[in-house]
Write a structure and sequence with these properties.
single chain; about 220 residues; alpha+beta; five-stranded antiparallel β-sheet; two-stranded antiparallel sheet; about 20% strand; globular
C-alpha cells in the first residue's frame, strides 16, 4: 500500500514514461506540466537499479507505479497523491497492448520508428491526466498517423497484433487479419487524408458572493 501525507484524490496522471532497458526515455508524455517533476525519470531508474522495487513503491515523497514488458521496456508513472495502484498498473499494461496493436510490435526500435503515432495514442487515451479509453476499435477513427515498418516505409504487412482487453470492455478486440497492424486493417488499401488535429484548452474563472450568487465570470484560452 502506498503511503502519502496528501489525502486520497482521483486517479489523475501527471506523466507517463516509456524507458529503454538502459533507462533512456523513449516516450515522455506530460499531461500536467505544472505538476511534473524535472529529472524524475533518472531518479526512478536509479532507484529500481540500486534496489529491488515492487511494482508500487514510495520514494522521497513520490509514489511510483511501473511495469516491465518485452525486451526490458519499462512503463512508469508517478504522483505525490495516492493513486489506485491496481488501476494504474492495469492502465500501463493496456497502453502497452494498445501500442503493439497499432504499430504491430512492442519494441524499442518499433516505438522509436513510430513516435508520432505513439504520442497520438497517448493523447487520445488520456486527456488532461484522466483516462478516456484504451479500446483499439474505439480509437481508430481518431488516429491519423500510419505505422512505419523497418526501413522507414509505411507498414503494409505488419507484425502480429496484440489482443489486449480494454478498460471499457471485457471482450478482447478480434482481429480480422492478424498479420496487419490495426491501422492497416482500418485503411483497407485506401490512402489516408492529410488531416490536422488540435487540442483547444480553455480556463473558466468564476467569482461568487458569500451568498452563492455569481459575481463575475471569464473564459480564457
Amino acid at each position: 500500500m502506498l503511503v502519502s501525507p496528501v489525502p486520497v484524490q482521483t486517479n489523475c496522471l501527471r506523466e507517463i514514461y516509456i524507458l529503454s532497458p538502459r533507462g533512456e526515455p523513449i516516450i515522455s508524455k506530460v499531461y500536467r506540466k505544472h505538476e511534473s517533476i524535472p529529472g524524475i525519470a533518472d531518479v526512478f531508474f536509479r532507484t529500481i537499479k540500486t534496489k529491488t522495487c515492487p511494482p508500487f513503491f514510495h520514494h522521497e515523497g513520490v509514489n511510483f507505479i511501473w511495469i516491465q514488458r518485452e525486451g526490458g521496456l519499462v512503463l512508469f508513472t508517478y504522483s505525490r497523491e495516492n493513486l489506485s495502484p491496481s488501476f494504474v498498473a492495469e492502465l500501463l499494461h493496456r497502453i502497452a497492448g494498445l501500442i503493439a496493436d497499432y504499430i504491430g510490435e512492442l519494441s524499442e526500435a518499433g516505438i522509436k520508428r513510430n513516435q508520432n503515432l505513439v504520442y497520438e495514442l497517448f493523447d487520445e487515451t488520456v486527456d488532461d491526466g484522466y483516462v478516456q479509453s484504451t479500446s483499439s476499435e474505439y480509437l481508430k477513427p481518431y488516429i491519423s498517423n500510419e505505422p512505419v515498418a523497418a526501413g522507414g516505409k509505411a507498414r503494409s504487412d505488419g507484425a502480429g497484433v496484440w489482443q489486449a482487453e480494454t478498460l471499457d470492455s471485457q471482450t478482447p478486440v478480434q482481429s480480422p487479419n492478424p498479420n496487419l497492424s490495426i491501422i492497416d486493417r482500418n485503411l483497407g488499401g485506401r490512402q489516408r487524408r492529410n488531416d490536422v488535429f488540435a487540442d483547444v484548452v480553455e480556463h473558466l474563472n468564476v467569482t461568487f458572493f458569500a451568498s452563492g450568487e455569481m459575481h463575475s465570470q471569464e473564459v480564457s484560452g
